[in-house]
Amino acid sequence: MESLTRLQARRIALAAQGFTDRPHAVPSMRTFERTLSRTGVLQVDSVNVLQRAHYMPLYSRMGPYDVDLLRRASERRPRRVVEYWAHVQALMPVELWPLMRHRMETYRSERGKWGFTADADLERRVLAAVRERGPVTARDLEEEFSTGPRTREHWGWNWSEARKVLDYLFLVGDVAIAGRTSQFEVRYDLAERVLPPAVLAAPTPTPQDAVTELVRRAARSHGVASGACLADYYRLRLQPAPGRPSVKVAIEQLVESGELLPVRVQGWNRQAYLHRDARLPRRVAARTLLSPFDPVVWERARAEALFDFFYRIEIYVPAAKRQHGYYVLPFLLGDRLVARVDLKADRAGRVLVVPAAFAEPGAPSETAEELAAELRRLAGWLGLDDVAVGHRGDLSRALGAALER
């Protein structure tokens, strides 16, 4: 069995995620498609303190790009990506839709996902309204399908009846997301008006075949991974209920076919698997900031195993108890995560605000200068004119001085 050092595993993982791809002078739709083939999915999140989560992994790999590329890919024909519950809510290539049908059927049999049940009596009427008027938002249908005042007892989950039914219809694949409004509201439409006809006509694989293909794709995106990493990428269950498709079976099939090679990774206490097409570059020359929802760091145990980087997002932690800040981004320099910065876009003042900056143990001496250059680049992409550094963190003074220079 082959053995890899942690450094080798880290470089393999970064290459698999696209950080060694040759940059295009002006990122194009071809650049976008290449990058999406590396990440596989783009997690969607509503937090907009800096930039929406699904835009950031593209920036981290492509550099400053026109965000209209993603809007075109997700909202115009030929549609290249569509939202679904792929990792969590995520934009995924449209060809993954048939692979999600087994998940859709599970949601149908379980009547949804969230622990509350949409009103089954409204389903047919809501679907008819979407067919007649789509694309529509839940707000468009809220008054018509309300069965009483909305409750306020569960923050974040006080959905209208129309919203509950639309979400259920989305989970089971009867409707799809045609796009979002400027307020980030989902616009729903019939799946056949959103997905390309060839995707809708594609045969439905067996649940096990679908899981095996998703594990295969996860392995390509990871380069090297444990079974838990492979399961997490598309949120599959490593230990499913009896009779359900199995990640373990998928791994066994891929090992038998030679697509996955069992390996040992220094410091890992779990069996690892190397994709046969994974590359081990001699060096990784990255310099970029990563979203908290970037595939490199979203599985926190993997980030710690690869980078010795302990990372937790603190959005829901009371301000007085936060260790690093509200919206903290890791800084990737070369093949290491060398710092983390709390960031906020002050759009009215056209300033990228850095309330706090922290160096990781052993960060190289050039960290402040390199991070300053990256913050200037990020600010330019966001349409901001300046960068302002606060006083929190052991890197803030050096970072502020570097920005002044």
What does it look like?
The chain is an alpha+beta fold and 405 residues long. 38% of the residues lie in helices and 19% in strands. It has helices spanning 6-16, 29-39, 56-62, 68-75, 101-110, 120-133, 138-142, 161-171, 191-194, 197-201, 207-222, 227-233, 247-257, 300-307, 367-381, 396-404; strands at residues 2-4, 42-43, 81-85, 89-93, 175-180, 186-190, 224-226, 260-265, 272-275, 286-289, 328-334, 336-346, 351-359, 386-392. Strand 8 (260-265) and strand 9 form a beta hairpin. The termini are far apart.
SSE order and pairing:
Blueprint: E1 2-4, H1 6-16, H2 29-39, E2 42-43, H3 56-62, H4 68-75, E3 81-85, E4 89-93, H5 101-110, H6 120-133, H7 138-142, H8 161-171, E5 175-180, E6 186-190, H9 191-194, H10 197-201, H11 207-222, E7 224-226, H12 227-233, H13 247-257, E8 260-265, E9 272-275, E10 286-289, H14 300-307, E11 328-334, E12 336-346, E13 351-359, H15 367-381, E14 386-392, H16 396-404
Parallel strand pairs: 1-8, 13-14
Antiparallel strand pairs: 2-4, 3-4, 5-6, 7-9, 8-9, 10-11, 11-12, 12-13
Helix pairs in contact: 2-3, 6-8, 11-12, 11-13, 15-16
